[in-house]
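Intended use. Records like the one below are meant for learning the mapping from a protein sequence to its folded structure. Do not use them to infer anything beyond what is encoded.
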Amino acid sequence: MRMNRRTLTIVLILMATSAPAQSAPPSVSVRQAHARAKAGQSVLVDIRTPEEWADTGVAEGAIRLDMTTPGFEIRLAAIRAENPGKPIDLICRTANRTRQVQDALTRRGWRDLVNVRGGMLGNPTDRGWLDETLPVVPGK
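Structure written out for the chain above:
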């Protein structure tokens, strides 16, 4: 099969401008996050606010780290340093903020952040921690 010059030019332009395939950011279900944290395979970090913790409780075993406080990234880096080699599973209310934090920090070079799909309350596509009746501790 022979390509004419115009077709070849179009193919070359498309090849040059197409972005390389990117894999989806890592994520786990709430059940997987619970099992990983319980087995010591990951560190579970709840990035919600104290008001949200008080409202729903906190996933058992989660470290509380309010993403709205100054020095959030520095504190998260300290958690990572205290747990070398373990991924950090981020959980929030519905997995929206954790995905945003994951994306922002990945652009800054972080490679060990995992989004907990569904968060505490769930979303249209994923069941949440509470929906799955996973253990919680008081959020006070």
